[in-house]
Write a structure and sequence with these properties.
The protein has 89 residues and is an all-alpha fold. 76% of the residues lie in helices and 0% in strands. It contains 3 helices and no strands. The mean pLDDT is 78.
Length: 89
Amino acid sequence: MGFLAWIIFGALAGWAANLIIGGRERRGQGCIVSVLVGVVGAALGGLLYRLATGKEKTFEFDFASFGVAVLGAIVLLGVLRLVRGAARR
């Protein structure tokens, strides 16, 4: 995928993960943060996919890649939420 495709794919994956995770603090999240969460989540999802299956995941514009990217972004948002919660205590 090209650079622009990664940005679009990351934005969509980050947006979908934000919708699924929800929460009051996630609603005001900007577009740049959604793109970063989506792109990092896609990389994390690819790593988790490789660890679970032993196969490498190539990201293309298909539903399987989108699902892996969204799941990775959800894991990333969950970890960030736990870290923020622990830091507030």
